[in-house]
Amino acid sequence: MDFSKEGCRFYTFTRWKLGNKATEIRGELLQVFPESTPSLETVSRWIRAFAAGKTQLEDDHRSGRPRTSVTEATTVRARAIIDKDPTVTLRFLSLELGVSYGSAHDIVHEQLGLRKKCARWIPHLLTEEQKSERVRICRLWLAEFEPNGPKRFSDVATGDECWISFFTTRDKQSNMVWLSDEEPRPQILKEGFRSRKRLFTIFFNSQGPMCVDVMPQQSTITAQYYTDQVLPQVLEHQAKSAPTRRRSRLLLHHDNASPHKARLTVQFLEQQGITLLPHPPYSPDLAPCDFWLFPKIKGAIAGKQFHRIQDLARTVNSELRGIPASEYRDCFMKWRKRMERCIEAGGEYFEGM
């Protein structure tokens, strides 16, 4: 769903009156309407106009020469060209139609109502059976975690493994700098397959982090290591933080990786009396570590160089414990909303969260 320009202006005006800055307002719009959010420059220009006393939400009427190049015939030709090749550029279209770049822009955006959008990356090409399973498990979760249901999110411990590099490149937007035409662009080292990294296993609940385990160098997770080293740390934290609560109240959630599904892991959880919550197939969008925690941690340490694993592990722990408890609770609420969105989408991957 796209947000109209007038709607964006009204939201910007309201948030500006409440004391928010342009960067904060655009960030909020970007979270909800990533495809139709205006640029930071545009939001700043609107705020300057509001500050000058302009409260009109619509664009000012512009008088000018009557359009001669934007006709019904050129619009039809443009539609045919785009239907044949949806990747054509406005420059190519203006040359093919014999019109200016501005007229080609007007034909595509105003007359045809089109916007050029990047293809969306998805984790997996889901089958109908997998989509149905995603919906089934989401419905099961929502039924059991209703306000008066048998289970509570406060009893859930969720976790996963994640490779964290000794140097994480910042995203492209963060690396943009102002330069003159004569100045060379700065160079940023790109992470490669052989970059130094270490496997972390992190578990957390709605109150905060429960376990941060760092795998030994040149090793990966196995069911034996998972049950000997990782899960006991989760149980130990549970016992210390809630000594009066029965261990059987703990609800464990992890994805369907091989060490998590191994017979050894299943037997360990049964022996400890731990309830294992189901996870849909190929669903990182429904795993809190993947859709919230890991991106947050990597973003926080991006651009920092670490030479020792002790320094990297100390920083990761510090970042985890620096996240307010309210954000951990909000993550579980977002998790519930994602399940609702998954059901609405019929099990397909969804956008806008």
UniProtKB/TrEMBL annotation:
User: Where does the source fall among the domains of life?
Assistant: Eukaryota
Q: Which GO terms describe its molecular function?
A: nucleic acid binding
Name of this chain's protein: Transposase
> Which taxonomic lineage is given here?
Eukaryota, Metazoa, Ecdysozoa, Arthropoda, Crustacea
Q: Which gene encodes it?
A: tnp
